[in-house]
Write a structure and sequence with these properties.
With 205 residues, the protein is of the alpha+beta class. It has helices spanning 10-18, 23-30, 37-44, 48-60, 82-85, 88-102, 115-123, 165-173, 186-196, and strands spanning 35-36, 64-68, 76-80, 132-137, 140-145, 148-151, 159-162, 181-184.
Length: 205
């Protein structure tokens, strides 16, 4: 369990719930839907003892729950509670804030499976106009359709965007399209990128 701060403060309380190492990354993975323990361990690349501890803590504070799928699957899966899903806006803002100083990926960085869907879900999904966008980065293919991001190709996409990982960083974080190859409705892509761009800061008077 995360350290207690002994302060009557909502920030301190939130950190007591999800501030332990790996906790928010577990939440990040479960934002994509229910997952089995083995899938979580594989996607996160952490020891099973650490994962078990984080899941136990997140269950205890009402962020995560587990249930058994009906036959024939009969697998036990973990998923976010309604309270846990309310962290989505927090995770999105934290991702955008961190990306600004993280910089684009290089050949030395290993990108985890599903990173492209996570990025689209964090940056573009909340502001996307109606339409079907397909993004291709190496072996990763993800779709943004009517404001929802998912793995895999789109069915009859309006726009297809192909890029290297660093080009996708520039598109999502710096809102620059020139590093990508675009097929289809270019104006629709411009529209979603413009919507994702932050409002200019007000000038003090």
């Amino acid at each position: 369990m995360a350290s207690r701060y002994d302060q009557y403060c909502p920030i301190a309380h939130a950190l007591e719930l999800v501030g332990e190492r790996w906790a928010l990354l577990v939440v990040r993975e479960l934002m994509r839907g229910p997952q089995r323990y083995t899938d979580l361990a594989q996607s996160l690349g952490i020891g099973t003892n650490i994962l078990a501890a984080r899941l136990r803590d997140l269950e205890a504070c009402g962020v995560v729950t587990k249930r058994k799928l009906p036959p024939p699957a009969s697998s036990r899966v973990y998923e976010l509670t309604d309270y846990g899903r309310e962290l989505k806006a927090v995770v999105r803002e934290l991702a955008l804030w961190g990306a600004r100083s993280l910089g684009p990926p290089t050949g030395e960085h290993e990108l985890f499976p599903g990173w492209l869907t996570n990025a689209l879900d964090a940056v573009l999904a909340p502001v996307a106009p109606p339409g079907r966008f397909e993004f291709r980065v190496g072996d990763e293919v993800a779709t943004l359709e009517n404001g929802a991001a998912r793995d895999g190709p789109a069915d009859d996409p309006d726009v297809i965007v192909t890029s290297k990982p660093e080009g996708m960083y520039h598109l999502l974080i710096e809102h620059r399209i020139e590093g990508a190859t675009v097929e289809g409705n270019y104006k629709l892509l411009e529209q979603v990128i413009a919507a994702a761009a932050p409002e200019p800061a007000a000038v003090p008077v």
